[in-house]
Amino acid sequence: MTWKQLFEKRKTGKFAVDEQTGKVFELETENSLDIIAAAVSIIYLTAALMFFAWQLIDIGTDRMCLLRNILDKNADKLVSEMCRIISFAVIGGGLGAVVNGYRSILMWHSERRSFGWRHFWKYLTLPLLGAVLAAMVYTLTRAGIGVIGGISAPGGDTTVEAFSAFAIGALSGYGAQKVFKWLDEQVNRIFKISKIAEIEVPNLIGKTEQEAKDILRISELSLGIITEQPTIDPNEIDKIVAQIPAASSKKSKASEVSITIARKK
Question: How far is C-alpha 14 from the geometric centre of its chain's CA atoms?
Fold first, then answer.
């Protein structure tokens, strides 16, 4: 699509730009299935909002009913201050994702009337995805592996750390797209793969088999398959007339170079 076509579509209102991702989408008129999907998405996000709000109050008052019911007899051993703080990050991630979901639905359904039923799967996973991303981001920043805006998650005062965990979680859940890019940067930074040294393949055309072996040994390459082909040219007899890979191409150390030697017909 050219810029001129894009501009024409903008004038006619047939496309829209997502303010958060910057992606351009072509608008399609909603049908009855799309409207039902939008309604179900809103109901689901509202249920998720109520759940995370309940958890925020439950953990904030140190009752932790859900965690204690799940952990049963081991609750007192496993429900520590750190578990409580990470829970705040997870709750923040879920709430941030729910807010992002509301923003998206209001924009695409209420304002643009272009909600697609396939979007439901996005909103179905948003709260869970936000919670998981929040836990990952907070753990990385708390461990000092990653930083957000140059500042790692604080430690020390538990109240401050709880607010920090919730804030980091909420931002992570709301900005999931940017969090994915941030996580990619952390993975690339930590798990760097050393680039394998590549060697330029020497030109063996016109050389004898022994000369080729000596040249390849010096170049830290090895001689591969040797084939023969007949010739009537006395200047080509017992000389290399073809090679794979070609001269000047790049190969990793110890790679093989196959040659073709001309023999008297």
Answer: 30
For 230, phi and psi rounded to 5 degrees? -70, 150
Q: What angle do CA 79, 49, 60 make, to 5 degrees?
A: 35
- Cα distance between residue 93 and residue 88, in whole Å: 9
The whole-angstrom separation of Cα 233 and Cα 257 is 24
Same domain, yes or no, for 219 and 158? no
- Using CB atoms within 10 A of its CB, is residue 113 exposed (0-12), middle (13-18) or buried (19+)? middle
At which of 139, 165, 190 does a domain end?
Answer: 190
Q: Say which residue the tokens 């047939």 belong to.
A: 14
- Same domain, yes or no, for 162 and 90? yes
Residue 258 has pLDDT above 70, yes or no: yes
Domain end, chosen from 190, 219, 244, is at 190
Look at residue 1 and tell me if it is in a domain: no
- Residue 67, CA distances (Å) to 59, 82, 90, 189 in order: 9, 14, 13, 35
CA contacts within 13 A on the Cβ side of 126: 31
Domain with 213 in it? 198-264
Per-residue pLDDT of 99-157, as tens digits, reads 999 998 888 888 878 888 888 898 999 999 999 999 998 888 877 776 665 444 555 56
Tell me the H-state helices in 17-145.
32-60, 65-71, 75-78, 81-105, 120-142
